[in-house]
Structures are given as structure tokens and as C-alpha cells.
Write a structure and sequence with these properties.
Elements: H1 2-17, H2 20-44, H3 49-52, H4 64-75, H5 84-112
Helix pairs in contact: 1-5, 2-4, 2-5
Length: about 120
């Protein structure tokens, strides 16, 4: 029965990992937040212009709205999604693993807790 249980766990793990609706949820949430994340990152690296000169143009922003306006003006909508493909792949993997672990814990935890009848 241990082998059967292990096979069930492996099958459950595989089916949960490749479950498209969970991966899609992670990708959509990341895609929705990606423009704000881009703005946040650009504001965070401000002040390191000398170290970043070899990477190309450096821009100084006076705040969040100024950053949004300059990204749109200089790079268009695509500027908000730079690096997005890698970020989306990472998000899909992380979301899938998170749901797999969550479901595994939900499936396993009840078997680890003794019944009240067993303790008597």
C-alpha cells in the first residue's frame, strides 16, 4: 500500500504541477502587475548612474508619476514590459510549485493527525 500511496502522490504532484489554470493565474497576476514592478525597479536603481553607464541611457526620475511619463514618452507601452518574458516564466513556475505544495500539505496533513478514537 505504501507503493500505491507513493504512486498516487507522484501522479497528484504531476497533475497539479501542470495544471493550466493555476499557471495561468500566476501569469495573469504577474502580467497585470508588471508595469508597476518596472516603475518600482527603475526608481530603486536610481542613484547608481555611474555604475550603469555601460548599460546605456540613464534617466533621473523625480517620482513615480514622472517615471511613468518618461517610460511612456521614451519607450512607449513596451517599456513597461521589458524583461517581462523571463518574469512571466518565473512566475508560472513559482505559482505552480506553490499550489503543488499547498495541495500536497492538504492531502497529507489529515493522515498525520491521529483520530480521537485512536488515542483511547
Amino acid at each position: 500500500t505504501t507503493t500505491t500511496k507513493q504512486q498516487h502522490t507522484l501522479t497528484s504532484f504531476t497533475s497539479h504541477f501542470f495544471s493550466s489554470h493555476r499557471t495561468l493565474a500566476g501569469v495573469l497576476s504577474k502580467l497585470t502587475l508588471l508595469p508597476l514592478e518596472t516603475v518600482k525597479k527603475r526608481l530603486q536603481v536610481q542613484g547608481f548612474e555611474v555604475a550603469r553607464q555601460e548599460f546605456g541611457r540613464t534617466v533621473a526620475y523625480s517620482g513615480m508619476l514622472h517615471c511613468i511619463a518618461l517610460i511612456y514618452k521614451l519607450e512607449g507601452l513596451r517599456g513597461f514590459f521589458k524583461g517581462g518574458a523571463i518574469s512571466l516564466l518565473k512566475s508560472a513556475a513559482v505559482t505552480a510549485v506553490t499550489f503543488v505544495v499547498y495541495d500536497f500539505v492538504l492531502d497529507t496533513l489529515p493522515s498525520l493527525i491521529p483520530d480521537d478514537d485512536d488515542s483511547k
